Amino acid sequence: MSRRAKLVWLAAALVALLFPLVAARPTWQNTAILMLMTAQMGVAWNILGGYAGQVSLGHAAFFGAGAYVSTLLSIKLGLSPWLGMVAGAGVSAGLSLLVGWPCFRLKGHYFAMATIAVGEIVQAVVNGWEFLGGAVGFYLPLQEKGFWGFVFNRSKLPYYYIALGLLAFSLLVNWAVARSRTGYYLRAIKDEPDAARSLGVSLTRYKQTAMVISSALAAMGGTLYAQKELFIDPGSTLSTSLSIKMALAAIMGGVGTLAGPVVGAVVLTAIEEASRVAFGGTGRGTDLVVYGGLIVVIAVFQPAGILGLFASRRGPARAAPAEAPAKEAA
Amino acid sequence: MTAQLLLQTLLSGILIGLVYALVAVGLTLIFGVMDIVNFAHGEFLMLGMYAAFWGFALWKLDPLFTLPLTALLLFALGAALYRLIIRRITDAPMLSQIFATFGLMILFRGLAQYLWKPDFRSVGESVVAGKVAFAGLQFGLPQVVAALGAVLTTAAVWWFLRSTRLGAALEATAADKEAAALMGIDAQKMFALAWGLGAACAGVAGALLSTYYPIFPEVGSTFILVAFVLVALGGFGSVAGAFWAGILVGVVEVVGGFLWDPAYKMVLVLSLYLLVVWLRPQGLLGKA
Amino acid sequence: MNPSRRPTYLAAALVALGLCLPAAAQEEIKIGVIYPLTGAAASTGLELKNAAQLAADLINGTDRSLNLPLAGAGGLPKLKGAKLKLVFADHQGSPQVGATEAERLITQEKVAALSGCYFSSVTTTASQTAERYGVPFLNGESSSPQLTQRGFKWFFRTTPHDELFVQNAFEFLRDLEKKKGLKPRRIAILAENTEFGTGAAKLQEKYAKEGGYEIVEKVLYPPKSTQLTSEVQKLKAARPDIVMQSSYLGDAILSMKTYKELGFVPTALVANNAGFNDSEFLKTMGKDGDFVISREVWALDLAARKPVIAKANELLRARHQVDFNGNSARAFTAIFALAEAINRAGSTKPEDIQKALRETNIPADQLIMPWGGIQFDETGQNRKGAGIIIQVQGGQKVTVWPFDLAGKDVIWPFPSWDKR
User: Fold this and answer.
1) Domains observed in chain C
2) Which of A181, C41, C166, C321 is surrounded by the most beta carbons within 10 Å?
3) Global ipTM
């Protein structure tokens, strides 16, 4: 990481730490929490979709696994959601092995389509499964439980800092993966799959490693969602539109970069919230026009993501961000 | 359970499967030529439905009479969309393309709601109201006509690709862009043509569906998942693949839902799809 | 500040002050109203919004001809005539967005109370937010029984919930047997496999068992299906007397068309409200929508007994060219109930409104609903809610049960499709 990049990260971390103390309005804090949560999902997705180049559009299944496992353990066994978060990450990683084994035979669009199918199947199965709450889902009791109980009614700050901590943790994992041998091979798989194979890199093994990490992180985000909203159902935690949103955050910021999903999530959430707050009450669909229109504009004029704006000054838009960590690994 | 009931569901499955096929043919055409998965494809179908609806609501013209006009309108829209937007992301990575067409999807839904309200509309009394009954089997005439129209349109697209110079040029571009360019084929024109044709197919499917399916801004979302499955199942870019996959999926969905549990009919379809691509990663008729 | 500008500011301040003096009363009381204004349910959401806005305008207006609480009061008299202002928000069908919007309305818009959200799942999360902040939440149209079983202190619901509705349907069948000697026994259930559909199906099974009916088929289907052929074939094969159906609008329309296509004719189709009662359903189906029976909370022909219904309906028609339906009538009623409580509280302090809501006792004749009134029990559920059963006859929804409210006799059985 360059000195300048370190400074930017440090500044961003400071701003993030101090933000809720300056912005005391619950709405601002809530929007910031949504940004952090979306960013965390995007980072999780990016490890598989960006670094390994395997575009998954079924990641909601992993997110949902985290939400459901922790909620079930907390409702049925009274376990702390923190333990549930760990368990959820484990279950999700296991599920990713099950999904990865058949799906990694497929490439490009075929892989993306297969993951949509997996996501839809998981949603339909949970929807019809009484033990998993079926279509009704689960309510978590609304009572202040403190840190260990993971329910906070009096203030938004605990949720904010937990979301921030989870994002920091995910970024750290991402950073560690990127500079490790695995990260090096992942880039090789993404950019030169044939060359990588001929050098004896087991494509499936490294893709699977990326997917296990990616899905475990997504599941942790799911637990946070469940504890924040205190209500989960298949529609809100397992839908394909949620999978697409995870990918959108990463794509909008810049795939295969550490900061991409964070920048993307901030912009995406800001557009979404602002257009809805401004126009949502009219019932005319204006918010969708604005939201969709802006996505198209960004996609057309900045296809490498918003980060490309900054990178393009020094070099080719797409290559620059992906190269930075590569140099460190080498 | 009688054999007759089974036959009835089987034929019903084929009827809806043929309409699915037409939607998917449009999607696979665009993909075959440009390697772009169009997330806004369901919205072309939705716009086709609205075109049929407004023709009926304003001028009392039956969706079947306005069908050619609907096809033309959607062709123009598809081609224009290519010129204005898609052209700029032709060389962008796959993810940016998904991103752009996803944005278009939301934009079109929003525009439809903005312009025509979120109400559910329908074409009241189409000329094709009624029933077809034979040998103890019965089918709604709108469904039968929609299926027939879908087959004819698919056949027309097939004929166009196989038997016209323009179609051959399109196929050549799909097979190898550089070689096609060397032969003097203007790739830009071909891409616009593919988008026009693709949108027109979905629009025609929409107009055919409008005689019995409710029309609303989000209606595209109902059909897009099936269309995706068909394109992947048949093999990305394969028109024939999409056609046969459509029939297969229609039958599995309807007969499977009937014999097993309708709550899991899509699970059945999606599992079949996963099984097929697991055994044959390039899809039924896709190029390896 | 530019000195030359100062007089202008001064003048402006004076004018503002002058406006304020007589208009100190013209303060606004904000109520946050959250509905699905985009997405698949946007058409219903818009209907609800229009009805709620009409209710607020009636309270703020001066037309005293309607016998509804505060109608024509020109605002809330006990709050110095403060006007009611509804701040609408869109939840897009997402529970998370519902909670986000509830929080925004409470903290940014400073609403005195909340109402909405139609979808039970969104009402769940939005009312949690209200509970956290200690702001009253009055729900007018979500029917999941669990909502009032959560021990919330700030949640109130005017509409009866699904348990009562399903009970009503079976009471209707029992009354048919007692008074008309009709004995349908075989019931088939068709429901979307969502919270709404599966919940209703479960209750239907329970009450069918208690009533000695036989469930010959239970079909759950994924909502927004491209076709319902397999579902309808399954029903047809089971040869039921009665089909009990829970579907939203798109599926309600598609299923009816499929019944017709496949010539499926049960003795009766008893729908569980939702799509079948949407104004668009009859507009779309035309005469093919005839003879459908559905549980309802409201029907226009009740106007024969309650003239206020006809008057309110005329006002809505004049504005939006549609009649009330069960959903919009409930949204309309919720705003009146909320306004009445806020006015009685004489304050916008949440505790005062909560206390007033607990003491609410609106008599039956001041409602456009066929209810015994509005009075909340300790869970926040209106204990005086009631349901009716309607049937579509000649393109109109007419009340057919309870028999003492019935505008017309029920047409039984469902005529076959070619004899219409």
Assistant:
1) 11-160+304-374 (3.40.50.2300), 163-296+388-419 (3.40.50.2300)
2) C166
3) 0.92
